[in-house]
Specification:
elongated; 72 residues; 78% helix; 2 helices; single chain; mainly alpha
Length: 72
């Protein structure tokens, strides 16, 4: 179970470190907002994808903890 926990923790760390930085880049992209400053589909889709990735990071973290404690 330890190798499984390590993989899950690495996945959680990757998602938690990479995706928020990616959001910063997407938010600054000229395609993120229209001429009126309203969020475009480009920004909305990326926000949904990033949110899913962060939820998966949390799930991976919890599953890693469960693997280490023997709950799996």
């Amino acid at each position: 179970m330890i190798p499984l926990a390590v993989v899950l923790f690495l996945n959680a760390a990757f998602n938690a470190l990479v995706w928020p930085q990616f959001y910063k880049r997407v938010a600054k992209d000229p395609r993120a907002r229209d001429a009126n400053g309203k969020a475009t589909a480009f920004l909305k889709v990326h926000v949904v994808l990033i949110a899913i990735a962060l939820v998966l990071a949390l799930v991976s973290l919890l599953a890693g903890i469960a693997a280490l404690t023997g709950a799996l």
